[in-house]
Amino acid sequence: MANNDQRPSTERKYPELYEKLIPVALVVIIVAIVVLFFVAIAVALGLFSGK
Amino acid sequence: MNILSTLLPFVSSVVSFVFAFLVYKRYLARRGPHLLLWGIGMTMYGIGGFCEAYYGMFGWNPLVFRLWYLFGAMLVAAWLGQGTVYLLAKRKWANILMIVLGLASVYGAIRVFGAELDPAMMGSSLHTGSELSGRAITSGGVRILTPFFNLYGTVTLVGGAAYSIWIFWRKRILLHRVIGNIFIAVGALLPAFGGTFSRFGIGGALYISELLGAILLFIGFIRSTTPMASAPVEAPVEAPIKGPKK
């Protein structure tokens, strides 16, 4: 009887470097969006001069 | 004339127009409203850069200032972001948002071209990047519109790129699009942060960030639309060898 656990997995993987870098980049991008959101609110409220 | 405040925006403008040309070309070949909107957005980016280069060389005149403010400061991010909305959202919602953006843009254009400008700020060529702002507009209710356009543009363009990264990364597919979207997100964020630094008086920050932004957006677009030579994501990996289930 074939042992299912020993068959190659079809799970996909990116190269090691990208596996590490992509989540970091994603977090940085999301944090940047949040920061800009607050900056935009501050500009709209006139807390510092906007464009 | 300040070399940096002329040369940097001029190069940004050239990069943006070349980028816009390639996007329009792709639109003619493949159609898709997102390509048309990105082409329009990059054209606006190019107009903004050209106006800044003009400002660096000759100082403002009312027409160039209004063109810069409308396209370079107010509308560019929102129109680029609207392209992403068409790519990711349901067509019905994208159409509704397009109508709202179109009407808001017409309103913004009317307000910018109808605004009174401070004559003392027109014609001066003694400036640094930090002085590039909409303070020349003396009419009320115009500059307040800009953060709303930019917020919409940033959330849709950068948020859309981040969403795409998440979707592809979770499934471990289309690595070239993940990388391309990272470039697009960073490229879109840079001018926004450059504008913020500029407000805090860091001279030239806006010009440098706009140039880098245009280049990264360009690279991101090329990377996203060009599959990688090797396809590492397709390779299956060996599962850890476990003992038989008991």
Write a compact overview of the structure shown.
The complex is a heterodimer of chains A (about 50) and B (about 250). Chain A is mainly alpha-helical and about 50 residues long.
Commentary on this structure:
The complex is a heterodimer of chains A (51) and B (246). Chain A has one helix spanning 16-44. The model of chain A has no long low-confidence stretch (mean pLDDT 77). Chain A is mainly α and 51 residues long. Chain B has one domain: Rhopdopsin 7-helix transmembrane proteins, CATH 1.20.1070. With 246 residues, chain B is mostly helical. The longest helix of chain B has 28 residues, at 3-30. Classes of the chains: A mainly alpha (51), B mainly alpha (246). At the A-B interface, α1 of A face α3, α5 and α6 of B.
Strand coverage percent of chain A: under 5%
Per DSSP, the total helix count of chain B is 7
Instruction: Please tell me the overall pLDDT of chain B.
Output: 86
Structural class by secondary-structure content of chain B: mainly alpha
Oligomer description: heterodimer
Q: Could you say which overall geometry of chain B the principal axes of the C-alpha atoms support?
A: globular
CATH class of chain B: Mainly Alpha
Order of helices and strands of chain A: H
Structural class call of chain A reads mainly alpha
CATH architecture of chain B: Up-down Bundle
Percent strand of chain B: under 5%
C-alpha end-to-end distance of chain B: 80 Å
Overall pLDDT confidence of chain A: 77
Unreliable sequence segments of chain B: 233-246
Secondary-structure map with pairings?
The complex is a heterodimer of chains A (51) and B (246).
Chain A: H1 16-44
Chain B: H1 3-30, H2 33-58, H3 62-88, H4 91-114, H5 145-171, H6 175-199, H7 205-225
Helix pairs in contact in B: 1-2, 1-7, 2-3, 3-4, 3-5, 5-6, 6-7
Considering the chains and any ligands shown, give keywords for the structure.
A: 51 residues; mainly alpha; 1 helix; 57% helix; rod-shaped; B: 246 residues; Rhopdopsin 7-helix transmembrane proteins; globular
